[in-house]
Amino acid sequence: MGTITDDEVIRKRLLIDGDGAGDDRRINLLLKSFTKWCHSSVTPDEGFTQYQRMLGSLAQCEFSMGKTLLVHDMNLKEMENYEKIYTDIEQSISAAHEKIAECKKEIQRAKRIRKNRQEYDALAKVIQQHPDRHETMKQLRALDKELQQMSQIKENVEDKLELRKKQFHVLLSTIQELQQTLENDEKLENDDASQESPMENGD
User: pTM of the predicted model, to two decimals?
Assistant: First the structure.
């Protein structure tokens, strides 16, 4: 797993603290307390104490609202990040398919080269039956050189194909791991939310 960013740490702390459940109840209680305070005939000290309590409740509501907005913004950023990752993966898969198609064409070319080499070998045997002809031997050497070049091309094509197969396997493994990680993160977030809801309702 990679290094946990500051945004992830803050987000997890906010999820642990609560996601704003019970704010409506706090606001209703605050309004009732305010109405009662306005119509009460208590001593100044008692009235000041009630006033301080209402300020505390109001601060809690504002703090909870701030946390909810922060979690919302972070979720939006996370969704944008996941969309970018998904787009990058799609592009990588598309590029991998193109590389595979290209490698298949190179394999077909290598097969043609092999067939030509077999024909050249047969022709070389015929040519070798006439060693006294200087021009024929010269052509034979040129054909042999060309065969060597084609053989090297064939080896390069096979090596490149093997590399592309390994790269595509790594890419698919990475996609599966990323998908599993996203599913685990989503499961953890749902579990945390379900655990926090009873705690907030208890407040």
Answer: 0.32
Cβ atoms of residues 67 and 18 within 8 Å: yes
Amino acid at 85: I
H-assigned helices in 18-133: 23-38, 44-128
pLDDT at 86 over 50: yes
Give the Cα separation of 127 and 117 in Å (integer): 15
Structure tokens at 24: 């409506």
**DSSP structural state of residue 19:** S
Confirm if 173 and 179 have CB atoms less than 8 A apart: no
Report CA torsion sign: 93, 97, 103, 104. positive
Sequence-distant (≥ 6) Cβ neighbours of residue 153 within 8 angstroms: 110, 113
Helices 44-128 and 134-202, interaxial angle, to 10°?
Answer: 160
